[in-house]
């Protein structure tokens, strides 16, 4: 009898295991809960390319792979945790010597970026004594960048109003920057005296995702690529010091796969978009003029990636430079952007920031504040009237605006 | 060329192993004696390397043994699964020999994941001068915690090894070196000690592609059995005490310099140490036969201030296994079969502390539970069914990645 009991129990257990495998597994999180995922409409081949890029994006470099010899972080994914907004612990510092209108990025002294970490046996950089301006930055979210990259320059220029011709107090202008040696203009780009409109970076100092990836590989990780073979070194150690790994440390194919990954990351998902308070908050957001810079909607032209062609997206940015006033003036110019000018940061995904920042928000370009109200309080310059308009709202109305921001 | 040489050596070793087995068997199979572990003595974890079943062939002064582990695997993290698969975890072979009455040799050769990893885990000579004083030299298992020395698959009710033992501590961790060990018996008590000087860790414990302080990274250094990276011996020591019908508790330490602080006589860096302390217990409640096996360890190391905070200066973690036999009788024709319920809980924090800049807590930890059921046809063979559920948080403490696994496996000495 007992033997039968054991036999039956054993079989029952195995059958239970077989049929309930999936039920015992953790569920797939809701799409709106995760920052990873592809844009809709990719082909299986493109999905595979995306996965390859994802792997490279997450690759952790070591000394043997060419990390450093000085660096900020050892992986893309360590700053852009979960593809989301970065954390102050991985912040980077840009520096320069600014004397009137003369800007020296101190390239021979380790500029334009401080690499405060170093591989074993190597001395990290310290800020050179000549540096007199500094700008701390935390990493932005990398979701939805493909839509921004696919946008044509004309769509950006359509919202430019450098002389505030419409009298709304907002005078956004594009940041024209010198292209990199490896930049290859596409039909979406409109040159201006040999320069192109930057649309990536806190001050719109990068024209393409590729520019940003190549720059970050080198300046953040000390990784050379086919696009930039000159390795970092600490000038304080001497010009012939390095990591002893042959350059390039990654291939063009590696860079391109990371670029493809970022181009095909889905846009940040909205939550509670149909909630009445969220809708009311969005109306107030537009009513008090926030949407003058945080422009809601764009549509892409034809793209080499079909899934990015003719797509309407909602970044809540105009990708233009604006005078943000003294409180946000870092005195650090980039391209034609001065210290007080910043690109309107896309607000999509801002409500998900805390999910990549350890449960607490670190906002603004350097993560100095922890709430949307504080962010708004730092709006000066052109945005001062919008700050005042927000402050004039009732508490209930302010709460609705915040709810709207949290839904992005 | 090296690969060819290694394969050739392995071929010869395998051939000898099986030819020896078969030739004896063809002559007289009754001359093969199975020597089961001696359970009459108060054996401790430090005896684990010899406390295994061996096959003795006739009067040949060499005994052979080994074990294998194979299992199924179906796991998913946040709903994403790589599918169902089979894992041949390891095949381990022992060879021991009594050279003279008080000189013994034992070696343990392990093939992991097919032939992806081939390691000599133990190969040492023991010279007994007194029960309290034995000299051991060779490739020794550093006695940190208990699992490192007592890791044979058939001894455990769980398919996966404890995370704290293999992903924080580097089990199975062995090094070239020398040391002393001994035991002292007093009535129902036995006291044991071990102390070794061996080669140690290297810089890969923080300069690695794991992105965290990871002591097992040193195992990737193929030169470590012939070259001590830091040039300073690592110390490993353990004391343990056991009382009959109560259990054993051990306290162990392992530490040494892990970086190359001098090169060609030139001082190039500070001496940077890694220190590990561990406590291990095992006990059985006589009335219910409930067994508790656990280990907790803390790691601290001197990480260069210029290094990123991802690489922890402190780590801690451990596990506790509870095993409850629920049936012990003749089953399916096996005379002394046992059916057990088992439960493991484990935790590792790879980076203990707070971020310097924000003062916020650094997470990077994992917590797991593993309920299971095991069936032992004999003490040397186990059929296991495990269900694992674990929560892993990143450095910043973002929502945990949840992983679950269902595994079925067998492990047996042979």
Question: How would you portray this structure in words?
Answer:
The complex is a heterodimer of chains A (408) and B (414). Chain A is of the alpha+beta class and 408 residues long. Helices cover 28% and strands 9% of the residues of chain A. In chain A, strand 2 (92-99) and strand 3 (102-104) form a beta hairpin. The radius of gyration of chain A is 24 Å and the shape is globular. The two termini of chain B are 33 Å apart. In chain B, the strands form 2 sheets. A 16-stranded antiparallel β-barrel of chain B has the order 3-4-5-6-7-8-9-10-11-14-15-16-17-18-19-20. Chain B has a two-stranded antiparallel ribbon with strand order 12-13. Chain B is mainly beta and 414 residues long. Chain B has a single domain (36-413), classed as Beta Barrel (Porin). Chains A and B meet through helix 1 and strand 5 of A and strand 3, strand 19 and strand 20 of B.
The low-confidence runs of chain A, each spanning 5 or more residues with pLDDT under 50, are none
Structural class by secondary-structure content of chain A: alpha+beta
CATH class of chain B: Mainly Beta
Residue fraction in strands of chain A: 5-15%
Number of helices of chain A: 12
- The rough form of chain B would be described as globular
CATH homologous superfamily descriptor of chain B = Porin
Q: Strands across the major sheet of chain B, in which order?
A: 3-4-5-6-7-8-9-10-11-14-15-16-17-18-19-20
Radius of gyration of chain B: 22 Å
